[in-house]
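REVIEWER CHECKLIST
Item 1: Sequence provided? yes
Item 2: Single chain? yes
Item 3: Sequence as submitted:
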Amino acid sequence: MLVLGGTLFDGTSGDRIEDCGLRIDHGRFAAVGRKADFGKAHDGEPVVDATGRFLMPGLVDMHLHVTFTWFTGHPQPWITAPAPPATIRAVRTVAVALAKGVTTARELGGAFDIPLYIRDAIARSEIPGPRLIACGRPISVTGGHAWFVCTEADGANEFRKAARQQLKAGADFVKVMTSHEPWKMPGAEQTRAEVGLDEMTAAFNEAHEWGRLAGCHAMGSKAIGRALEAGVDLVEHGHYLTDALAEEMASRNVVLTPTLSGYDVQMQTMRISKREPWALANEILIPSHQAAFAAALRAGVRMCIGTDAVGIYAEEVDLMRQMGMTPRESLFACTSNAAKALRMDAEIGSVEEGKIADLVLLRADPMEDPYALDEVELVIKDGKIYRPSDLAYIDSLAPSPTMMELARRETP
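Item 4: Structure as written out by the authors:
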C-alpha cells in the first residue's frame, strides 16, 4: 500500500518529514520519503490518505499484564482469577492495546502460562493484538511479592531451575521479583529486598546462557544494586534509585521502565482503588519514585514507556515530560528506545526501509501534546490496517475519556 501525506516522526533522528510518503510491501517499509517522491499507485495498490495527520512508528508498551490490566478495586482477585476468565480478559486486553496504537508489548507475567498462549495466538494471526515478548511466570521467593502469580523458589539452585522451567515453556526473557512493594521498614526506604545476589545471579545467568534478556521488578537501593551486580538488563519501577546506581545503570546500558502513571497517579484514583488500604500504602513510595526518575534522567539512563496493570500510556509520556524529559526524548521512549532494549531495533522502533511496517496515524501532534497519543485514527501492524472502531471491546475495557480528564486533573 501507499501512505501519502501527513507529518512523520520516524523514530530515528527525531526530525520530522512533512508531507511524507511511504510504500509498504509484504509487511515491510519498501520506501520512505516525501509524497512528491512517489508517483501513481501500482495497479490495485491501496492508498491511505494521511493528509493532516501525524504518523509515527508503532508504539511499544514495555510493561503490560494481559490477564489483569485495567482492573478496579484491589488487584489480587483479578491477578488470581481462574484460567477461563483470565484468558477472556487477555484476549480483550490485546485487542484494545492494538486499537490504541501498541504494535509491540512486553508481557511481564501472568498465571497458567496464558501470556505465552496469547503471544502465540497473535503470532499465528488467530486473534488481533500487539506482538508479545513474554516471560510467562516471574520468579519470586516463597511468599514474596506477587507470589500467587509467580514460580516460588529459594536458593540459587531453585532460582536456576525456575528460570530453566520458564525458558523451557517458551519464555522470551526471565523476570525476577527482587523486592516487595510498600513495606514498613526502619530507615528511609519503605520497601524490602527479597532476593539474594546468588539467587538473582543464577536466574540471570541462565537467561543469558539461553540468549535471553534478564529483567526484574525492583524497588529499593539494595535490590537495585544486587540486580545490577547480578547482570540484569531491564529494571521495572526503580523506586529509591540513587544517583550512583543510576550512573551504574547508564554505564551498563541497563534500561529502566519507570511506570509512573500506574504507581503515582492511577493507583490513587477513585476508579482504581476506592482509597483502599492497598492504595494508601503505596502513597509513601511516590516521592521516592519521582526522585528515582530524576536520577535516571540526570545520568542518561535509557527509559521506556510501560503501563503496568493500571497505567495510561499517554499519561506516562505526559509525566515524563513534566519531570524534565523533552518531547522528542519521550517519543523515543515510546519507540526506538524500547526496540533497542528488546534487541529488536533491526526490525521495529522506527520507520525505515526494510523494517517491519508498524505505523500509527494520529489526529493530533504528539510532539505538542502527549495526549495526542490517544487520538488514534488507524494502526498498521505488519503492513495490515486495523481501525480502532473495528476492534471489539475498546469501550468496555479501555480507560474512558472521562477517566482521562480525571487523570489530567490529578497529575501531580
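Item 5: Key structural point noted by reviewer: The first helix runs from residue 76 to 79.
Item 6: Recommendation: ____
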